């Protein structure tokens, strides 16, 4: 198998603002693994403020220890290849994710199957929410109305930059979109535990019907998140607190959250993501599958996972919708809140756009 890496930078049609960062481009490392006739694709996004993985670091990891670990394996040695990828280096989850997905993609193509079919599913459409990035109350309200008009019925509001103003911003969005669309919040670790309880209770008292609140406090503060979970009625979703199995076990032991957000770039690919989803289900936790600021390769892999492993709430797979110019041809297609998975083999990606 030949491994090739491609650095890509895809512009967004609208800046994406969270409590942690502002993005105008999706910076990724695309990985192509070829058997000489077909290529499987994977994606390692660069998200300094969440994973800490850089494109340069991911590239060095893939072309160094991961390539060495895979040396001598054939394209049909999938189980052993995936095991070696996870053991090739400590951390470097984005690099592991990209290679894991590329190996799955290549295996599916060699069998003439879609990736979701290879994972055991015949479902070719999955739903996503839509994120409203951080902004003032007027901007958020207008964005909320626009996204509902675009066909999205689950909206996620980025909060956490200003606890004092978060309640008003969320209330304005609810007033603008009406009672039917679901609203969820993502604080991206931006609140203290007391701010989180104050804001969430105020929204509950105001009847804003918040579906869930994602990562209200710092990732390492599981006691704080458990403190919040115990004091509010709104379900709490752990995101940055959970990378791998050990993290999820700690969340479960602390009773820190009601749900977990599984992301391929956090856990290292499809194989560990399936383990996390099964572990959450076994312990009665809800789950969704999310994404970083990724393109059709990364989001397409996550959507294929959702197709085969249904989650308990609408998933968070809108990242590729934000791209003005995707870096690859073909793959997934958005139709409002629906993501249509390709009928072509693997991820359906046919190459780079340039």
TrEMBL record:
Catalytic residues as annotated in Swiss-Prot or TrEMBL: 158 (proton acceptor), 263 (proton acceptor)
Cofactor(s) needed for function: Mg(2+)
CDD domains to which the protein is assigned, alphabetical: L-Ala-DL-Glu_epimerase
One Pfam family recorded for the sequence: MR_MLE_C
Cross-referenced Gene3D superfamilies: Enolase-like C-terminal domain (3.20.20.120), Enolase-like, N-terminal domain (3.30.390.10)
Residue sites binding Mg(2+) per the record: 186, 214, 239
A GO term, aspect molecular function: metal ion binding
InterPro entries xref list: Dipeptide_epimerase, Enolase-like_C_sf, Enolase-like_N, Enolase_C-like, Mandelate_racemase_C, Mandelate_racemase_N_dom
E.C. code: 5.1.1.-
Family the entry assigns: Belongs to the mandelate racemase/muconate lactonizing enzyme family.
Name assigned to this protein: Dipeptide epimerase
Organism: Kribbella shirazensis
Source species taxonomy: Bacteria, Bacillati, Actinomycetota, Actinomycetes, Propionibacteriales
